[in-house]
Design goal:
Its cofactor is Ca(2+). It is found in: Endoplasmic reticulum. The chain is an alpha+beta fold. It has a domain of 116 residues. It contains 17 helices and 23 strands. The strands form ten sheets. The chain has a three-stranded antiparallel beta sheet. The protein has a three-stranded antiparallel beta sheet with strand order 8-11-12, with no helix packed on it. Helix 2 runs parallel beside helix 15 and helix 9 packs antiparallel against helix 10. It is globular.
Length: 578
């Protein structure tokens, strides 16, 4: 039943001290140059603390000034921060870290790793760093971007994940042992995002390496989810990958589902695939019809559409950015402003926010320095130039520095009500939160290139253009240059076919011209139809067999920047009674 939600704003958090560059009495927008330098200082305080206290562990524990492994013992923060170094302009440290990773990271280890997290953080981070290596002054191989040490590392990591996809449905398990494959007792229940968040990284790998297996398994997983949607067009948030039956039937845009929708849009742009975009647009209709109330998005039962949880989750704050990517700016801004009121209320976004009550949900009061609202602000600012979006960036810098900064980095906020801290600094703080803040305040960054500059690169398959812009971020904010996917096609049959057909066409044109001159007085010309001619039915049939129809859509006009989403509570299943 539809109902109108009344959201009390509550008491706003105590005003933070205004620094130089913050809006003054005249209401001027924050000074981007000032906050750009503040964000850069934040990055190096966190990054240097990790190097000094936590490396080679995955992540920093900022309250005890030490480190711990969280996602597989990959020196994960170093991989996640690598492309951020280049975006901040630090080419020398980028070059140093590339060598460190080559010497120290090993994927042939007896570790149970999250398939989802390893893909978005490790595979995505290595692919992005590989494609940015030349810009960072790294001496690249002759075959780059179709070969290189970071690409080989990304491929090795991705191959360790492939056993997870060997299920009756093609949907992957959530965890895989990097040495032994899927453990015999592994649970078959996986969240929707953990199934549908591979097409960006895996299609890029297939294009760069020439091995189609990565893109193939990612596409199968996407299609199985699509085929599993309910009659009203919704998907739940956890499914059994062996049987294809939904275990948790709450439908929404947040935790457990989020990046599935994100990757349908970004996969469509990256691969120019209109089927993926059509799938998202169908989902978008159902989401609007059943989960949207007054520009908030609730959780509903996937088969009935009835409200099961009237909550806003911090992970949902990526949605305005996703709306802007498909050009739905007005709706995006209205939803963004709803989420911004929550930030102003607490100085951050609590993991769960009860919309009717206008307050946090018990045991979900924390803010682990997530990037999603900042990401949407960056996206929308690129689209609109609205200074309100810079104000969110200012508020984020001031809040994080005041509440979260400690001697050894930045600590997760355990409770936004009293600002208690937790002993963890997630790697996405450097991969995403700081990166999106910096890009929000740096309008001339190379990531925002509009095509006015580019690099012409000679590859084994000819010349191609790179670095012209349109970067597509994966869900961990690792930018992928879409042009690179067209540089390294190993199967040259399509190009050879076009060249052969063009030569045949011009040869036929010359023959036709000569034939017409000879027979102009003897009646109308009819094209030859024998074997070997351009119009031969046999040639047309061979062409159809060799080159399947390619799905294309027009390029979208907005910048192709990504949306980040994480699983707020790994393994949590939302039940109807919650």
């Amino acid at each position: 039943m539809l109902f109108r939600l009344l959201v009390p704003l509550g008491l706003l958090c105590a005003l933070l001290p205004l620094h130089h560059g913050a809006p003054g009495p005249d209401g001027t927008a924050p000074d981007p140059a000032h906050y750009r330098e503040r964000v850069k200082a934040m990055f190096y305080h966190a990054y240097d603390s990790y190097l000094e206290n936590a490396f080679p562990y995955d992540e920093l524990r900022p309250l005890t000034c030490d480190g711990h492994d969280t996602w597989g013992s990959f020196s994960l923060t170093l991989i996640d921060a690598l492309d951020t170094l280049l975006i901040l302009g630090n080419v020398s440290e980028f070059q140093r870290v590339v060598e460190v990773l080559q010497d120290n990271v090993d994927f042939d280890i007896d570790v149970n790793a999250s398939v989802f997290e390893t893909n978005i953080r490790v595979v995505g981070g290595l692919l992005s760093a590989h494609l940015l290596s030349k810009k960072a002054g790294v001496e690249v191989e002759a075959g780059w971007p179709c070969s290189g040490p970071l690409l080989r590392m990304a491929e090795e990591a991705a191959r360790k994940l492939l056993p997870a996809f060997q299920t009756p449905t093609g949907m992957p398990y959530g965890t895989v042992n990097l040495l032994h494959g899927v453990n015999p007792g592994e649970t078959p229940v996986t969240c929707t995002a953990g199934i549908g968040t591979f097409i960006v990284e895996f299609a890029t790998l297939s294009s760069l390496t020439g091995d189609p297996v990565f893109e193939d398994v990612a596409r199968v997983a996407l299609m199985r989810l699509w085929e599993s949607r309910s009659d009203i067009g919704l998907v739940g948030n956890h499914i059994d990958v062996l049987t294809g039956k939904w275990v948790a039937q709450d439908a929404g845009i947040g935790a457990g589902v989020d990046s599935y929708f994100e990757y349908l849009v970004k996969g469509a742009i990256l691969l120019q695939d209109k089927k993926l975009m059509a799938m998202f647009l169908e989902y978008n209709k159902a989401i609007r019809n059943y989960t949207r109330f007054d520009d908030w998005y609730l959780w509903v039962q996937m088969y009935k559409g009835t409200v099961s949880m009237p909550v806003f989750q911090s992970l949902e704050a990526y949605w305005p950015g996703l709306q802007s990517l498909i050009g739905d700016i007005d709706n995006a801004m209205r939803t963004f402003l709803n989420y911004y009121t929550v930030w102003k209320q607490f100085g951050g976004l609590p993991e769960f926010y009860n919309i009717p009550q206008g307050y946090t949900v018990e045991k979900r009061e924390g803010y682990p320095l997530r990037p999603e609202l900042i990401e949407s602000a960056m996206y929308l600012y690129r689209a609109t130039g609205d200074p309100t979006l810079l104000e969110l960036g200012r508020d984020a810098v001031e809040s994080i520095e005041k509440i979260s900064k400690v001697e050894c980095g930045f600590a997760t906020i355990k409770d936004l009500r009293d600002h208690k801290l937790d002993n963890r600094m997630e790697s996405f703080f450097l991969a995403e939160t700081v990166k999106y803040l910096y890009l929000l305040f740096d309008p001339t960054n190379f990531i925002h290139n509009n095509g006015s500059t580019f690099d012409a690169v000679i590859t084994p398959h000819g010349e191609c253009v790179l670095g012209a812009g349109g970067y597509i971020f994966n869900t961990e904010a690792h930018p992928i240059d879409p042009a690179a996917l067209h540089c390294c096609r190993r199967l040259k049959e399509e190009q050879w076919e076009v060249e052969d057909l063009m030569r045949e066409f011009y040869s036929l044109k010359r023959k036709r011209s000569r034939f017409q001159k000879k027979t102009m007085s003897s009646g109308p010309w009819e094209p030859p139809t024998g074997p070997g001619t351009f119009s031969s039915p046999e040639n047309h049939e061979r062409a159809r067999e060799k080159k399947p129809a390619r799905q294309q859509i027009p390029l979208l006009s907005c910048p192709s920047q990504p949306f980040t989403s994480k699983l707020a509570l790994l393994g949590q299943v939302f039940l109807d009674s919650s």
